[in-house]
Design brief:
InterPro entries: ThiF/MoeB/HesA, ThiF_NAD_FAD-bd, Ubiquitin-activating_enz. This is THIF-type NAD/FAD binding fold domain-containing protein. One of its GO terms (biological process) is protein neddylation. The chain is α/β, with parallel strands linked by helices. It has 2 domains: 159 residues, NAD(P)-binding Rossmann-like Domain (Rossmann fold, 3-Layer(aba) Sandwich); 66 residues, no CATH class. Helix content is 43%, strand content 13%. The chain contains 11 helices and 6 strands. Helix 3 links the parallel strand 1 and strand 2. It starts with 8 loop residues before the first helix and ends with a helix.
Length: 261
């Protein structure tokens, strides 16, 4: 566990671009976003607005599946088609305009109805991070939901009605392991413990715990031993640094400068 190396010019430029969201979900959250591959079924006005909201912060890639052609109605309800696209594949037109929002994002499209794709290439959906479907009738939605449930890919089905909308989520389990409390006190004094804490530490026989349950140690004790080994060896008596800068009230330029330091 060594201290992170200084950020490269490329990384610092990305930090400047995504500064606000990095403060919200950190480097690891951004990395997870950039590794994502989202599938959108039907490039409706609602569908393209959803994609816009994840293209701007830097989703890794997206694929639009839509066998429809652009109509005059689309031009009135969808910002990501234009009158020159009428009669052309809606998936192609939406993909081109969405990609203009963020050069870091990759996008592709399939000019085919999802029903035909499920019949001819059912494994096409296996490797997506999530599938988002809009304006899909039940006879097409149910086979898609069954397929995605079998392969463990989350499904979001969205429909809008004027100013109201509904969202149905299909996912076996979704857990959140990291919270962002308003205030935290991370100082546990474990490098300079007070007498009571020192006595508690000395009452725990780490060696016996390791020998007793060496193959089934809980993650906490594995991490505790790793920290101890670091402090005693390459840490030179010092605890490891996490390498991230907490959120704070500051100007963006000063915050980014601190990150680079």
């Amino acid at each position: 566990m060594a201290s992170p190396a200084p950020k490269s010019p490329e990384q610092s430029e990305k930090a400047k671009k995504y500064d606000r969201q990095l403060r919200l979900w950190g480097d690891h959250g951004q990395a997870a976003l950039e590794a994502g591959h989202v599938c959108l079924i039907n490039a409706t006005g609602l569908g393209t607005e959803i994609l816009k909201s994840i293209v701007l912060p830097g989703i890794g890639s997206f694929t639009i599946i839509d066998g429809a052609k652009v109509t005059e109605e689309d031009c009135c309800t969808n910002f990501f088609v234009d009158p020159e696209s009428i009669g052309k594949p809606r998936a192609e037109s939406a993909t081109q305009l969405l990609l203009e929002l963020n050069p870091d994002v990759k996008g592709d499209y399939v000019d085919e109805d999802v029903e035909h794709l499920l019949e001819n290439s059912p494994d096409f959906f296996n490797n997506f991070s999530v599938v988002i479907a809009t304006s899909l009738p039940e006879r097409k939605l149910l086979p898609l939901a069954k397929k995605l449930w079998e392969v463990g890919v989350p499904l979001l089905f969205c429909r809008s009605y004027g100013m109201a909308c509904s969202i149905r989520v299909q996912v076996p389990e979704h857990t959140v392991a990291e919270s962002h409390p308003d205030s935290i006190v991370p100082d546990l004094r474990i490098d300079r413990p007070f007498p009571g804490l020192q006595a508690h530490f000395e009452s725990v026989d780490f060696e016996s715990l390791e020998q007793k349950d060496k193959a089934h140690s809980k993650p906490f004790w594995i991490m505790a031993k790793a920290v101890r080994d670091f402090v005693e060896n390459e840490g030179g008596g010092c605890l490891p640094l996490c390498g991230t800068l907490p959120d704070m009230t500051a100007q963006t330029s000063r915050y980014v400068a601190l990150q680079q330091v």
